[in-house]
Specification:
The complex is a heterodimer. Chain A is of the alpha/beta class. Chain A is built from 18 helices and 10 strands. Chain B is about 40% helix and about 15% strand. The chains are: A alpha/beta, B alpha/beta. Chains A and B meet through helix 13 and helix 18 of A and helix 9, helix 13 and helix 14 of B.
Chain lengths: ~400, ~425
């Protein structure tokens, strides 16, 4: 059997909060920085989404359908496309129409609801699934949780929601001696198939590609295809942020040329492309994996510490989710929408205080100068949201 | 490695932070195997000499230590002054000194050889005279102890002339240590040019200039025109050993937000008051305290009254010793909104007491304190927002208090002086 390459790209844009002073609490309930959100989205659309979608579309037609990829697009990102750059949605529709692109399901708001809010988790997964059906005309059958967060407990919930396949990180502390390049099953739910990110090869593209100090620089498609071909196992899972292309690695780095040449180089090396759904259809699982504590694809620790590692993050998270029963009783569309956007994991990520190891990368993606500012701004917004929730409850 | 160090004061009798810093430095140097001979104008005899040997300049005769009087005078460019305008004193003391001077009339300064000079060692009205006499005595001491040190180290402009004299007479390398500059003491239009001149002479004559922050380093390079290659930052540290935790009973249930320091332009008191008014519009269970005195105190009181927040904003006047500790212990939030602060040790004291602190980006301490909240001094909205957050969101204040406590306990002089030792070594 041929060895396969499974490419999946994550598309997400957070709904950034505006600078929300405590003076605004109880007075102004518009929380979002529309200007920043629009400006950033338009920039990324021009630099990444549009040219890269075009490139992938060409690759599919040039390879006569042998080239395949998968996407997961968060509901928050889809909302922003709809509002600020409908042409991006259009180009994703074109990709969907080829039948060679799989779209995955995730939590609509790119949230951490899977960790302790089961009903909210179900709600967001269903909402995302419906939204993908409505906008792209396809029904997702594979699940990927926010930031590839995974545990035995989450595996059970995901299977119960009707998914047969789930993506997660090939975290070293889980895999031990085992290779991520095989299909596994969940220990807690043997019918759920797992595909594991090969972080070494994924990061060669996502992080190291333009690093001139890297001894493999410059990375060519032929060289990379050679590494894929040399890798042991059945399927090499290359999972990365879609913004890698043109945004994290800029066009001048040659990343587009690399991606343009990659499909042919991989096929020439005797491998084929699969989407996650195809991978689990073709390939038999080799073992089951037990993951009692949640893992993710973030930072060195590959755990939840980027979002819930300090007291600030935990407090913000608990305060927010403590409102869910009240909101269910009130059942107001406006409150649900804000509740959803406030759940975006990015808000917690900005409050991360792991300054020294992965601090740099956190800083790069944060609109705030310090984690304190992130917390203060978020809590001011949340304070207003709590006032509104309490008021709405009294009105019932 | 042995160092001849010129200071102005040394605990227990101190007026400012310079003496405390000097004590930390000689102890840290001792830990790092560096011996110091510490010269000060007026030692009392009760200084802790476990880490250094203190030489009292008041006990030393100004002597003809060079071959001729002319040569000595030539090498030590004496600095005669007869004016009493002194920028370094506390504004209140300054006011009193001027009054006293007016009453007594000017006194002529003269230098007598073979005489001892009784230094006050304070920041008094005859400071300029003391500074120039200190240079003469400094030169004498350096010659008397010429075989006992390798490097000369002078702390702040008060001792620069002594440092220069010692260098001229012995030919040994000079390090000047900038704890503050004229540009931090007031706005540029009111700088005392004589102090500025001494500072510049000291920095130019020095083989290395040590600054207490990168902020000060930039001032030294940009305002004094000193070659960046010889300016090195060694951040201050703080010695908390022997500190006992103080417990106080609180009289009010409200959260207490404190400003502690001189009420002068440099410390940014008006930004603190404006921020207080903004916070009080939003929440009532907070009180603000301005502890200290200074030339802007009356203006500050008027500003508070004008804003109509006097019932929630309190002035304590100048606090001493244990009262300072008590004030920290009573506080929930500490604010240092300085317009220009070479370092700023007070937030470290606050954080050591478990009080979360908000400091301005325009302070040297901001360069090393990760767990203090930081704002630009002029950004009153941001300051108000941070105060509100610290009194309203316990997760934030607890986190900042705990992390801040751990952080400042790590800031040890042993580490800072290891860097200082490297500076010395680079000169030999």
């Amino acid at each position: 059997m041929k060895k396969s390459v499974c490419l999946y790209f994550q598309v997400h844009q957070p709904t950034r909060l505006r600078q929300y002073r405590f003076f605004d609490i109880g007075k102004d309930s518009h929380y979002y920085d529309d200007f920043a959100n629009r400006t950033i989205l338009k920039r990324v659309a021009q630099k990444c989404y549009l040219p890269m979608n075009e490139l992938l579309l060409e690759a599919i037609s040039k390879s006569k359908g042998k080239f395949k990829v998968a996407f997961s697009i968060s509901g928050s990102a889809l909302e922003q496309f709809d509002r600020y750059a409908p042409e991006v949605l259009e180009s994703f529709r074109k990709l969907a129409a080829t039948g060679k692109v799989e779209f995955l399901c995730e939590t609509y708001y790119h949230s951490l609801a899977s960790l302790n809010a089961p009903s909210e988790f179900i709600h967001q997964v269903e909402k995302h699934k419906l939204h993908i059906q409505d906008t792209l005309g396809v029904t997702p059958v594979t699940f990927r949780n926010t930031e590839l967060i995974y545990s035995d407990d989450i595996a059970r919930q995901v299977y119960d929601l009707g998914f047969k396949t789930m993506l997660t990180e090939g975290a070293r502390h889980i895999m031990g001696w085992q290779s991520p390049n095989y299909v596994y099953t969940a220990e807690s739910q043997p019918k759920l198939r797992l595909l594991l990110r090969n972080y070494a090869l994924s990061d060669d593209v996502a992080f190291r590609f333009s690093e001139k100090g890297w001894n493999e620089w410059p990375l060519t498609a032929e060289k990379f295809a050679g590494w894929l071909s040399d890798a042991e196992g059945d399927v090499v899972n290359l999972f990365m942020d879609y913004e890698t292309f043109g945004e994290h690695q800029n066009a001048e780095s040659g990343i587009f040329d690399f991606m343009r040449a990659l499909p042919e180089a991989v096929l020439k090396a005797g491998l084929d492309f699969v989407t996650p759904a195809q991978a689990v259809r073709n390939i038999k699982p080799v073992a089951s994996l037990s993951v009692p504590d949640p893992i993710s694809w973030a930072d060195e620790e590959r755990d939840l510490s980027a979002w819930l590692g300090n007291e600030l993050q935990q407090d913000a998270y608990n305060k927010l989710y403590s409102l869910k029963e009240k909101l269910a009783i009130i059942n107001s569309p406006e409150l649900w929408a804000d509740f959803g956007h406030l759940q975006e994991s990015d808000h917690l990520y900005y409050m991360c205080t792991k300054f020294f190891s992965d601090g740099e990368i956190h800083k790069r993606f944060s609109p705030y100068d310090t984690p304190y500012e992130a917390f203060i701004n978020y809590m001011n917004v949340l304070s207003d949201f709590i006032i509104r929730t309490n008021y709405a409850e009294q009105q019932i | 490695m042995r160092v001849l160090m010129f200071g102005w004061e040394f605990p227990p009798h101190i007026a400012g932070g310079l003496g405390t810093a000097c004590e930390g430095i000689v102890k840290g140097l001792s830990y790092n195997g560096v011996e110091t001979l510490f010269v000060m104008p007026n030692a009392s005899g009760d200084e802790d000499q476990s880490a250094t040997t203190i030489l009292n300049a008041s006990d030393v005769e100004v002597r003809n230590v060079s071959s001729t009087v002319e040569e000595f005078i030539n090498k030590v460019k004496f600095f005669y002054v007869d004016s009493n305008i002194v920028p370094y004193v506390d504004p209140e003391e300054y006011f009193q000194a001027i009054e006293k001077m007016k009453a007594e009339g000017l006194t002529q300064t003269s230098v007598g050889f073979g005489q001892k000079f009784k230094f006050s060692g304070k920041y008094g009205a005859n400071l300029m005279e003391e500074v120039s006499r200190y240079a003469q005595v400094g030169g004498t001491i350096a010659m008397q102890h010429i075989d006992e040190f390798d490097v000369i180290h002078a702390h702040d402009w008060l001792t620069y002339l002594a440092g220069i004299a010692a260098k001229e007479l012995t030919g040994k390398p000079l390090v000047v240590h900038v704890h503050a500059t004229s540009y931090d003491r007031g706005d540029e239009k009111h700088i005392d040019t004589r102090v500025l001149d001494i500072e510049t002479r000291g920095m130019l004559a020095a083989d290395r200039v040590v600054t207490v922050s990168d902020l000060t380093r930039n001032i030294v390079i940009n305002k004094y025109g000193i070659d960046p290659a010889k300016v090195v930052t060694v951040h201050n540290a703080v010695d908390f050993s022997g500190r006992e935790d103080i417990s106080v009973e609180r009289g009010v249930k409200d959260k207490v937000v404190t400003f502690l320091g001189r009420i002068t332009f440099q410390k940014g008191p008006e930004y603190f008051i404006d921020a207080a008014a903004k916070v009080l519009k939003r929440t009532k269970n907070v009180r603000f305290v301005m502890a200290g005195s200074g030339d802007m105190m009356n203006r500050a009181i008027k500003q508070v009254a004008r804003l109509g927040i006097s019932d929630r904003f309190h002035f304590t006047g100048f606090l001493r010793g244990a009262d300072v500790q008590k004030m920290f212990a009573l506080s929930d939030v500490y604010i240092m909104p300085s317009v220009s602060e070479p370092f700023g040790i007070s937030p470290l004291e606050a954080m050591r007491t478990g009080v979360p602190s908000i400091i301005s980006h325009q302070s040297g301490a901001a360069e090393i304190l990760k767990y203090a909240l930081k704002v630009d001094f002029w950004d009153v909205d941001a300051l108000a927002d941070d105060i509100y957050a610290l009194v309203s969101y316990p997760a934030l204040s607890e986190f900042a208090a705990k992390q801040g406590y751990d952080e400042v306990n790590e800031l040890k002089w042993n580490g800072a002086t290891a860097k200082l030792k490297k500076v010395y070594e680079s000169l030999l």
